[in-house]
Each structure stands twice: as structure tokens, then as C-alpha cells.
Amino acid sequence: MTELSDYGAIMLVVAGGFLLALASTKLTQLLRVPAPAIFLAVAAGASDLWPRLGNAISLQTVGRIATVALVVILFDGGMHIGWKRMRRSAIPVLSLGVLGTFATAALVAVLAHWLLGLPWIVAGIVGAALAPTDPAVMFSVLNGKAVRGRSGTILEGESGANDPVGIALMIGMLELARHPGGSFAIVVREFAVEMAVGLAIGVVAAKVLLPLMRRVVLPNDALQPIAVLACAGAVYGVAATAHGSGFLAVFVAGLLIGDERAPYKSEIERFATSLAGIGEVVVFVALGLTIDLGSLGRDNLWRDGLVLAVLLTLVVRPLVVGALLLPVRIRWGERVFVIWGGLKGAVPILLGAFAVLAAAPQADRVYGIVFVVTLLSVVVQGSTVPLAARLLGVGMRPADPGRWVRERHVVGSSSRAIGLSVRELPLGEGGWVQAVERAGTLRRPRGSTAVEAGDVLDVLSPASDTPTLRRFFADEPVRPPASPG
């Protein structure tokens, strides 16, 4: 019975976090402070007032929750960017994601050693934990809007790239902490293996997953997004089991699938985006429950976290990102926005938990500092990101693609669709022909399948396109000949 009650307490915390996350979608419209920060602070306060709440969830559970959330966040981020957008900004994204992560971690480590007196190995762990940024927090603070132009691609791509890089770097640093006599070559070797294996598995996974998305249609349409996200979880599991970066594998798979056409793809993207935002809040709630606010004051962790948060935001990121963006052709307003938009979120939380679970030196201190820096980043930076976008002239666009519908269209005898191949039909971005019924026989079409009169097309498309498609597939109106003279 003890096992049942303990597991029940964990389920209560996780379910409560999900319910709070759903409520936060309304809360963010009323308050200027991002919802994740509110729940982080509230959960931390609640665990101090009712210690039993803090005992209901372990750091290991926090790490697992953060891992699941991050798999969804990175897969969604990869699909949202797509390889075509990524390719146009590949140089700044990769430079920020790889070089920027290492440079940020190194500068934070130097500052933590010199100013806070942390040993070099502990300072390196702090630097690795605080280097990555977070795309889901950015989506939350923008209230469902996406950044237009190249700056948006760079921010999203950087967040997707530096998360796996930061995690691999942290794993290397923890390996180095376990072998005090070792050299930084341990970190480099661990990083190289993680990245190479993760990249390879991500590419292979995309080649396997895309045909499955196109050909395997489940009886219930609502199961399609769940099935794809379950596959994303399997991709992470395969890569992690092979000692690679499961997070990089998931991001690469999403990236390569992002531009491809597949049935229910927009529904999958919407579901993944919603789940990623909810997962982010659940992670913040779980972190808050594991923090003892009293210990932050006793060990000067508030002071240390504040010092690092200020220097990271106003010194380290401007130096690193500013230097790496110098060759990139974007407006200065967009350049400043990318610098300011480096918000912290679920990944530093996960990396702080890694340090504690690995029994790293001064791990509790590292975890406390990560809490303070993350809280300040989301509250201070997050609250000002929409204002910064307006002041710097950075455009926004709605991120929600709108409602999609599935409808059967009968091709009229004089329809403009006759003779066109399926790939030539004006279905818009993401539209999809699920099946073609011809002479009573149902068949799955290819892109080269020619449309004939009398065909019944099962089409999935945005609701806003439905009236146009109905007119397109229907008979062309017969126009009377023009009168002479």
C-alpha cells in the first residue's frame, strides 16, 4: 500500500502540474509575467509551506519529466523550423548552437570561479548548465506568436541546436568530475560521440518515420499526433541506448520532417506545440517543489544566482552572440533581439538535476544557482521580450495555423482539376489528399496520380481553404457566348 500511496502522490503532483499548465494559457493573457515563472515561484513557496509536497517528488522524477518534455519540445521545434528555413540560416544557427554554447559555458565558468570562488570543476558544471536557451519559454512569453524573418529562425534554431550540445557538454563535465586527474579531452571525446551517434540516428529516423506518417493512417484521426510523438520518444530511446544524444536525434528528425508533406501534419504540429508548452510548465512546477527557499538565503545562492544572471544577460551573451552574428546580414534591431531573446528554461533545470543525480561536487549549490538564474531569466527577460520586439521593429505572426477539416470532394465533369496530378492541386501548404475513390475502388494516391472526372477525393486542408476547394473541384460554370457587336 505504501508503494501505491507514494506513486499516487507523484501522479497527483504531475496531474496537478498539467492542470496548472492548462490554466496558464489563460493566465498569460492577464499577467505580463510569463506563466512558467509564476508556477516556478508558487511551487517553491508551496513546498516550503507544506514540506510533504516537496517530499512527494524526487529529483530523479524531475529529471524524467524534463526529459519527456524536452523530447516533445525539440521534436516540435525541429518540425516548426524545417530544413529549408534552417539551411538558409545554417551558419549562424550552428555557430551559436555549438561555438556559442561552448563559449558561453566557458565565460560563465570563469566568472563563477573568479567572482564566486567556485572550484574550476564546479564552475565548469555551472557554465554547462546555464549555456543552453529554451524555445518553449520564448513561445510562452510571446503569447502564441512567432518571430518573423531570419531572427526568428536563428533564435529557434539556436535553441534547438544548443540544447543537445549543452546536454552533451554537461555529460562530459560530469565524466570529468568523476575522474579528477583526467583532461578536457574526456569532455571532447564524450561530446563527439554523443553528437555523431545522435545525428546519424536522427537522419535515419526521419527517413523511416516519414513514409510511416504518409502510409499508415489509424482508424481514429485523433491518434495520429499521439502515434508520431510516440515515435519521437522511440527515436530518443534508440539514440540514448546507443550512447548518442537522443535530444539531437529527435531535433534532427523533426527538422527533416518539417518541410515534407504528410497527412495530419498540421494537426501533429499543433498537438506537439501545445504539449510542449504544457510540458514546460510541468517541469517548472516540478523544479519548484524540489527547491528549499530557505537554503537559498543561508548559502548566499540568491546573491550568486543574481550575479551570474546579470553577467550572463548583460555581458556574456552580448559578447558571444554579438561576435558570432557579426558576419550575418540582419538588421541591428534583429541582432539585438536575438541577443536579448536567449531565455533559460527546462534544459538548465534538467542539467542541474543531472549534477545532483551524478553526485557531482557541490551539486546542491549548482542546483540552487540554476533555479535562481532560470527564475530571473524568465521573469525579467521573459516579461520584456514582447516590448523589446516592438521597440526593435521585429515583426510577429500568428503561430496557430487554424482549424483543419477533412472533406470529400467530387470532381465534376468540367472541373479545373481534371488532368492535374495530385501534387499540382492547389491545396496550399500542408494540404493532403488522403485517398481517391474511382469507379467504386478506394486507392491511396501518389503525387503523380492524375485526377479524372467523377473521382471522389478525400482531402485534408485548412478550414479557410474549404470554400475555394469546393469551387475548384466542382463543375466550371458554362458561360454563354459573347453577343456579337
Draw up the topology in text.
Elements: H1 2-30, H2 35-49, H3 51-55, H4 59-88, H5 90-116, H6 120-130, H7 135-141, E1 145-147, H8 149-178, H9 185-215, H10 223-241, H11 246-257, H12 265-289, H13 293-298, H14 301-324, H15 332-340, H16 346-357, H17 363-391, E2 396-398, E3 404-410, E4 432-438, E5 441-443, E6 456-462, H18 466-473
Antiparallel strand pairs: 1-2, 3-6, 4-5, 4-6
Helix pairs in contact: 1-12, 2-12, 2-17, 4-8, 4-10, 4-11, 4-12, 4-16, 5-6, 5-8, 5-14, 6-8, 6-16, 6-17, 7-12, 8-9, 8-11, 8-15, 8-16, 9-10, 9-11, 10-11, 10-12, 14-15, 14-17, 15-17, 16-17
Structural features, described:
By secondary structure, the chain is of the alpha+beta class. The chain folds into 2 domains: 2-398, Up-down Bundle (Na+/H+ antiporter like fold), CATH 1.20.1530; 404-473, Regulator of K+ conductance, C-terminal domain (Alpha-Beta Plaits, 2-Layer Sandwich), CATH 3.30.70. 68% of the residues lie in helices and 6% in strands. The chain has 18 helices and 6 strands. The chain has helices at residues 2-30, 35-49, 51-55, 59-88, 90-116, 120-130, 135-141, 149-178, 185-215, 223-241, 246-257, 265-289, 293-298, 301-324, 332-340, 346-357, 363-391, 466-473; strands at 145-147, 396-398, 404-410, 432-438, 441-443, 456-462. The strands form 2 sheets. It has a 4-stranded antiparallel β-sheet with strand order 3-6-4-5, covered by helices on one side. It has a two-stranded antiparallel sheet with strand order 1-2. A hairpin with a 2-residue loop joins strand 4 and strand 5 (441-443).
